[in-house]
């Protein structure tokens, strides 16, 4: 069980083998071992023992916090039960007084159970070892034991094999080989187990170290690939994910196989791990086991993914507390990711030691992890401190960093410019030399020059920065960066830790810089060559979130960090202030683009006043693109790109003095001409009629390829005489599905469409809604993808489209369908977003702007827009932005006379009504409102019909982004 004698003794008092055996013997004496009554009582007794032992293990985990001890206790509990069942079966149920040589058996634990550790919900893997072929006696004993274990509710993986079969199968099956490698004797014939171990070492392990190591490392790499190949996912898999328990198990398997050891501690005298590194191994393993055991106890099942909905509870169970700038759950998750990083460090150190040992003993391993040693290393031109070992940079000798600490940075710089991989030994020595990265090195001019060269490299700066971060160099060289290493943000929007997000942002910038992102980001790619302050942009992208986790706003605090850091990196005062400005405003452009009406001149003039110069506009555009792209898969999409481009072009015109109605009309005419050219195969009369349908905002904000698709859609609907029509398209890469709707426009259309999507179980992630000159609405709703297969997703989207048509045609009732969808499905939400409603008359010259921030939920948009209609407010433009679990909805509204909402009483009433919706109190508020405060249904906010020539009045186009 546990290595701690006191813990072993304490737990043995609760779960006593001798006591359980005596208890089962008494049952046999009372009922006879083979009777049904005896079996029923045996089952009840072992269930009671299991429940008592697990309760005790849970209580003790809460007391001492040791995950390794908890896993050992549950393993000991399972040993006790299995041993008692084996004794009962062989002594009382199938007793053989004079057993033959074939009527012997060993019960052994394999897999994780073989290591003497079990999580509360883990499977129990058993190997029943026989001396020869199976006999009726061995078959009966195994079957009796398994049925009792299954009746206890345990998941049991098992195999029954003789020694010859174990050896033969382990030669060809690496999974079986690994299981036998970890086999541990539980009960039965000890000599038989010893025979298996001796033959396994002699006939399987001997001389096959390279083969086993290569297979296990390849298996690990494939597991990492499936899990996302990063240890910094904010909902990590504690068992299988990168940096999780399985990585430590892989190291142990390899060590046991290659070094013929029984315990990880034996790697210290072998020189593979130092004492400090072995302690790190133990601490990491103990922490991961604690998290995993708490997860299983909490959920009552073998849950391996540390999801948002249990992170708070696990943090509480481990006694994490809130600190200024970081909540308890964020502190817990930061600790988790730091441990995952430690596991990565140990993997590199272990592989380096393994490679050194292998170099002395054998030609090498396959699969590229441990290379062949047939040829000598080569010198790297220009340096005597580093060598090229078949494409991997390594140290010329052990004192390279001691002679010149700048070599720590130079190692990564040379790897970049020579495009070399890193030898495990080099990274191991870097990890062991981190104390040399002190104030002197940080202020060293050459070290900072080399770092800037790495950051702004035309090759792969993201890869080099990630290696620096994983080795601990980046956080030591820039201490402010060290504070956000492994820091997570407890929300559904960010998919990665802060440091991983920043490094990914640099990778995106590098792709734009090299011209490989022209299709995804055409404007940013076009602007990049003309940006004069390229270094400024790279530094801003790397550190824009460097002040996350502090009590003050991270943009303001980040600007302060920039003013301190940039001079050290060799930047001029002007460059330093530019970096500080970019960090201070790095959220501004994306927020304006997604939550403001870009057809409102006031929006553009306010933003232009903040930006002031074209250079800053270019820099902010590229920074915004990199920031959004690096948040996580599916966050960036074509709508966001189009909105940023529209905001850029409008602001560019104003800054350059060209913003005027004439220039806007000219651009609209140009866009109309482009659409006319694209529809050249249409009859001239049809083309001319269609071009008159769309207003300037549509022509200026919708990409030409989308305009052509819409044209074909509308033409087909008109030809079929369909007043209501839908069209569907999937975007697998962005995990988004588009539903385009053509319908007669009316004031509550947005509310109806949003409600229909909610009723169909679709979450609106984005949308674009516009009005045509003949009084119809052309709405494109973007919903989160649900099915991986396009055919399945298209069927789902078609169902949603039908639901929208049914609601618009009056065949379905939104409230009834939503109520049915939500019945029995409510559960506690792991996130808290304080509802907020603000009303401003300064953001637009013509409209009152209402901004709503709250926790997202099914049907929310429908409820909000319905209330605005009840309040007799005309929604001229709506912008729906989702940040994971949080929504920020902005509505440009006027009253029915076309005026802003200036009355204090009406503003207060509007805020109260909206806050009631956000708090699920809409019905109560509606009942409490004085008569006359709510317009009658059906007459509340219908706009006067606009004439085709009234382009300005048709800002009722809704661009939901």
Describe this structure in words.
The chain is an alpha+beta fold and 961 residues long. Among the domains are: 5-206, Beta Polymerase, domain 2 (2-Layer Sandwich); 221-361, Four Helix Bundle (Hemerythrin (Met), subunit A) (Up-down Bundle), CATH 1.20.120; 375-453, no CATH class; 723-954, no CATH class. 55% of the residues lie in helices and 11% in strands. It is built from 41 helices and 16 strands. The strands form four sheets. The protein has a four-stranded mixed sheet with strand order 3-2-1-4, with helices on both faces. A hairpin with a 3-residue loop joins strand 6 (386-388) and strand 7 (392-395). Helix 30 packs antiparallel against helix 31 (638-655) and helix 36 (749-759) packs antiparallel against helix 39 (860-870). The model is unreliable at 362-374 and 921-961 (pLDDT under 50). Residues 1-381 are annotated as: Uridylyltransferase. Residues 738-815, 849-930 form the ACT domain. Its EC number is 2.7.7.59, 3.1.4.-. Residues 930-961 are annotated as: Disordered. InterPro entries: ACT-like_dom_sf, ACT_dom, HD/PDEase_dom, HD_domain, NT_sf, PII_UdlTrfase/GS_AdlTrfase, Polymerase_NTP_transf_dom, UTase/UR.
Low-confidence stretches: 362-374, 921-961
Instruction: Order the strands across the largest sheet as they lie in space.
Output: 3-2-1-4
Name the beta content range: 5-15%
Number of strands: 16
Structural class by SSE content: alpha+beta
What shape does the CA trace take?
globular
How many H/I helices? Answer: 41
Helical coverage, percent range? 40-55%
How far apart lie the N and C ends?
58 Å
- Report Rg: 34 Å
Q: Can you give the mean pLDDT?
A: 85
Q: Specify the biggest β-sheet.
A: 4 strands, mixed
